[in-house]
Amino acid sequence: MTSTSRRAFLQKTTIALLAAPVTRAAAAAMAGVFTPRVARAADTFVVGLVLPAEGALATALQQGAALGLDDANALATLFGKPLRLETASASDGAGAGRAARAFARDGALAVVGGSGPGVADALRDAAADGVLVMNVGAADDRLRNERCDRRLFHVAPSVSMAVDALTRWVADQRKLTRWAVEGDGSARATEMDAAVRRAVGRLGGSVVEPAAAEMRMLAGTDDAVRSALARARAEGWAEQAAGIGGDVPLALAPDEAAGIWVMGWHPELERFSARELNARFRRRFNAPLTETSWAAWAALKLVGEAVVRGNATGAAGIVTFLESAPPFDGHKGSALTFRRWDHQLRQPLYVVAARRREDVGGRRGPFAVVVDVPGTDLDNIGTSAADSRCRLSP
Amino acid sequence: MTRPARLLPLVLLLAVAAPAAALAGPFVYVSNERSNNVTIIDSATDTVVATVPVGDRPRGIGLSPDGRSVYVAVGEEDAIVVLDTATRKLVGKIAAGSDPEAFAVSPDGARLYVSNEDANAASVIDIKTGKVLASVPVGVEPEGVAVSPDGKLVYVTAETTHTVSVIDTASLKVIATILVGSRPREAAFTPDGARAYVTSEIGGVISVIDVARNAVAATLKIDRPGPKPKGVIVHPNGKTAYVANGGSNDLAVIDVEAGQITGYIPVGRRPWGLGLTADGRKLYVANGVSDNISVVDTESGKVIGTVRAGKGPWGVAVGR
C-alpha cells in the first residue's frame, strides 16, 4: 500500500471513533498515521468495520456489527480467542480503501463494509491487495463476476439473487410474465436490466414496453427510483422503505397501489428463531433489525466461527474456512454457505409487499413479509456456476 | 341372575368414580405449541383420551419420576405449569424465569433445570418451594436441557453459540463448555451415562459426547436432504438412539455400539419431540406441521399408527 499523507487522508475520509471500544487503528487514522501491528493484543483478534460517514445506514451497520461481535465473543472468549471491533467511517471509496488497508496493516483479521458510493469497489481493490473483506452492503453483480476476488466474500445478496427471487415468485404466484424495466442508465440500472432479462427469459416471460407491462421494475440509483416512484404516486412508500435501512423498493405492479420488493432480512420475521434474533436486537438498540444490520451481524459471527472452528489466525485461514462451506446459522432456517465459484453467501430472501398506509405503525413497518424464496435449493437464485464470469475455484 | 352379573353395576360404578388415569395407560402427553393445550393419549389403544388447556405457547414437557405430575413450559407466561396425571387438572404454576422453552426434571424429582432462551441462562428450581436456587449463565439462546442418569450433570445446549454447557448439579456451576454442530437443539444421555447425543439443526449432524472427557467423541452426519435434526432419545436398553429430523420428515436410527446411523423411518411432517414407553416398544413422535403423532414400533422400525394432536405438537412425555 502506498503511504497516505495526513492532509490527503483527512480531505477525503472521516475516521471517527464510534460507540465501539477505543479503536487504535481509527485513532491513528485520525492523526493520519497508521502504525503497523498496534491494534491486536496477543490474544485478541481485530475486525475492522468501515462505515458510511453518517446516516441511518451507518447506524444500522454499527449496531448489527456490535451484536454480531457480542454473539461471536460469547463463543470465542470461551476458547481464549476474543474478537474486538474497530471502526472507521469513510465518505467515499478512496477513504474506505485506505481505511481497509490501514486496518489490515494494523493486524485486523478482516474488514467488514461495502455500503456507500464507491465503497464496495474500493474494498474489492483492497481485497486484491490482500485484505480479507466481508461485503455487507453492495449488491452489485460485477463484484461477483468480473471483479470477484478470492479474499472478497459477499454476505449481502446480489442484484441477481433479488431479481431472481422476485421474478420467480411473481411468475409463480401472480402469473404476471410481461415485464418492463425502467432504468436511468446507471451501472445499477444496467445490471438490473440484465438480471431481469435473464430471469424473465428463464421463466418463459418477456420484457416489453412499459405500456404493455404487467410488472414494472424500477432500476437505477436511489434518486432515480424515488423519482419513478413519485411519478407512480408511491413516493411515501420510498421514504418509508429508506427509513428501514435497505435499498428502496424496485418493483411495482401498475394495477396495484402496493409494490413488491425483496429483502435479505425483515424485522418482523419469526420462524427459525428469527423472532429471538429480532427481539435481542430490539432489546439492545430499541430499533428494528434491518437487512443491513443483519448482514453486519452475520459477518462478525462468520469471522468468529472461522477463528474458533477453523482456527484461523489470519486472512488466509478465514478464506480456507469459509471456502470449506461450514454451515452457518443465520436464523433463516437453512444452513448458509458461500458459493465456491464467486463467494456469494447462499441464503433465502424475503418477498415483501407494501402495507396500506393505515396499517403501518408501532412495530408494523411499511412492508409485510409475503414469503421466503427460493425454498430448499438456495442455488435457485443468483448467478449459477455455469453463468458466472468468476472462477475462484471449481 | 348369576353372581358375576349381579356385580356388574358395582364394577361400572367404581370405574366411573376412579381417577381418569387409572383406567388404562401408560399415557402419553403431548404439548401443542399453537393450540395452547396438552393432548393425552392412552398408549394401550393409541387414542386421545383428553385435551387439557395449559397456557400460552406450551413447548417443553416432562414427567415427575413418580409419574404423578406432568410439567409443561409455557414460554409466553414465563412459567411451568403442573398437571396432575390422576385428575388431569392443572394444580400448580411455577415461575421459571424469562421465556422458558425446555427443561429437565432431576432423577430424584426435586428440581427442574430450565433453559431461559432470552436470558442466556439456565434456572435451577426447587419444585417443592418453587424457589429459583440459581440462574446459571450458559450460551446464547439456550434450548435443550438433559440431566445425566445419576443426576450429577446437566447439559444445556445453546443455539447461537453452538455449545453445550455442562453444569455440575452440586455446585450449580458450569464446569465445561463443549463446541458442537451449528444450532444444537437437544441432548440425551445413554442409560449408563457414558455418552450423550446432541442434535444440531443447522449443522445437520449429531454430536456424540464422551461424558467423562467433556469432549465430542464422534460426529454423525445425517445423510438426508436438509434434515434439521431436533428431538433425540435413547432406548431404555441403551442400544439404539432415535433422532427426529424436522426437515426431512423422518427419524434417524443410531446403533449406539457401532456409532453409526443404520436407517431412517419416515414419519409425519416436521417431527420434533420424541417419547418412548418404559419398555421401549413404542416411540411417539410429535409432527409439528401435520398436527399429529406417529406411533413407531421400535422392533420393526415401522409406523403402526397415527394419532391426531392439537396444533403444532412440540414435545412428548410418556408415563410409566
Written overview of the protein:
Chain A is built from twelve helices and 14 strands. With about 400 residues, chain A is of the alpha/beta class. A seven-stranded mixed beta sheet of chain A has the order 7-6-8-9-10-13-14, sandwiched between helices. A five-stranded parallel beta sheet of chain A has the order 2-1-3-4-5, with helices on both faces. In chain A, strands 11-12 form a two-stranded antiparallel sheet. In chain A, helix 3 (about 55-75) packs parallel to helix 11 (about 290-310) and helix 4 runs parallel beside helix 5. The radius of gyration of chain A is 20 Å and the shape is globular. Residues about 1-40 of chain A have low confidence and may be disordered. Chain B has one helix and 28 strands. The model of chain B is unreliable at about 1-20 (pLDDT under 50). The interface between A and B is medium-sized, with 19 and 22 residues.
Structural class of chain A: alpha/beta
The rough form of chain B would be described as: globular
Largest sheet strand order of chain B: 3-2-1-28
Tally of DSSP β-strands of chain B: 28
In whole angstroms, the N-to-C terminal distance of chain B is: 39 Å
| SSE pattern of chain A | HHEHEHEHEEHEHEEHHEEHHHEEEE
What oligomerization state is this entry in?
Answer: heterodimer
H and E order of chain B:
HEEEEEEEEEEEEEEEEEEEEEEEEEEEE
Largest interface: A-B, 19 and 22 residues
Strand content of chain B: over 45%
User: What gyration radius of chain A follows from the Cα positions, in whole Å?
Assistant: 20 Å
User: Helix/strand/pairing class of chain B, anyone?
Assistant: mainly beta
**Helical content of chain A (DSSP H or I, runs of 4+):** 25-40%
Number of strands of chain A: 14
Major beta-sheet overview of chain B: 4 strands, antiparallel
